[in-house]
Amino acid sequence: MSGPTILISRTDAIGDVVLTLPLAGIIKKYLPEATVYWLGQPLVRPVVEACVHVDTFLERGAMLQNPDQWRQLGITTILHVSPDHAVATLADRLKITNRVGTSHRSFHWVRCNHLINLGRKSSSMHEAQLNAKLLAPLGIPDTFTLNELKSFYGLKVAPLPATKDIPLPADKFKLILHPKSAGSAREWPLQSYLELAKRLPPSQFHVYVSGLQTEADMIKEAVPELLTLPHVTLVAGKLTLPEFMGLIEATDGLLAASTGPLHVASALGKYALGLYPPIKPMHPGRWAPLGEHAGYLVKPGACRSCRYTPEDCACMRWIPVDAVYNTVLDWLEVPVEKR
Fold first, then answer.
1. End-to-end CA distance of the chain
2. Which residues of 67-80 are buried (b: 16+ CB within 10 A; e: fewer)?
3. Mind listing the pLDDT tens digit for each residue in 275-320?
């Protein structure tokens, strides 16, 4: 291979992975001859493979069981975005030339030969900016504004198959509501999603309720009225991840807590509104969606009272339906009363 061979190791969930994709784009800009591999869990394969800057996705489990494949790929640099003891140990044993990790993991002290002084939990920087700090040993700039980072996603998804038979009315704003988070984030109450959907004019909006099958069951039990509204379609539990990304591409906007779909929508340039608590490290300063039409709502000030009450977060309940409703209406090309 004519250029460096770089392995990005990010084995976390979808949202974390999306906010790491800009690393691949930055590498391709500054080292255009580089080959970029991505080490991750099978769940995130469709997201990574949709990134035009990543050459090949490698499954973590299979790669740990086959050290010879590491040698065959000729990897010269590994970026430990996700601290992973097993991966760091193997990369060290194989003597990969550049092994880059954060100094805030003790096993990196003996497994990595490039340590970046990086503490995520207490940092005021965004996750995507923190990720970029790992590029310094490659001679690549490691300081980027959020506005700069959102141009490096390179996400291109396949269309939603027509066989899914999901209505996509051309004359309406197509809005995805993703109420749940599989326990990964603080959630806006389901009653608030119901109130919002009831207020959105059916003549102007078509609404899709997304999520896992278990979450679909929870929604049916908690707010059955939501799914009886004439302009609402339940897609939760009915789509694979590639199909869901195709739906996001086919729609206009998405509303969610700090979840993977929110970041996918942002990366695809869709209108995206994230709902957050003012609690570190969950706050939008760290995890806000990055995109041309992305934004967030959060309770002002700091929170000290509901850090340990994730099931009933007062900070999330505080976010007014009016504020969300008005933001969504602003997404329309013209004021709602004139549309």
1. 56
2. eeebeebebbbbbb
3. 999 988 899 999 999 999 999 999 998 877 787 777 788 999 999 9
What's the token pair of residue 12? 């976390």
Task: Give CA–CA dist 263/273, Å, rounded.
Answer: 10
For residue 62, the Cα-to-chain-centroid distance in whole angstroms is 24
Could you give the percent of the chain with pLDDT greater than 90? 87
CATH class of 165-332: alpha beta
How many CA atoms within 13 Å lie on the side-chain side of 228?
Answer: 6
Does the structure show a pLDDT above 90 at 92?
yes
Please report where in the chains the tokens 């807590």 appear, as a residue.
257
- Tell me the fold of 5-149: Rossmann fold (3.40.50)
The pTM for the full model equals 0.95
Is the torsion defined by CA of 219, 221, 224, 227 positive or negative?
A: positive
Give the three-class secondary structure for 18.
helix
For CATH 3.40.50.2000, the residue range(s) in the chain are 5-149, 165-332
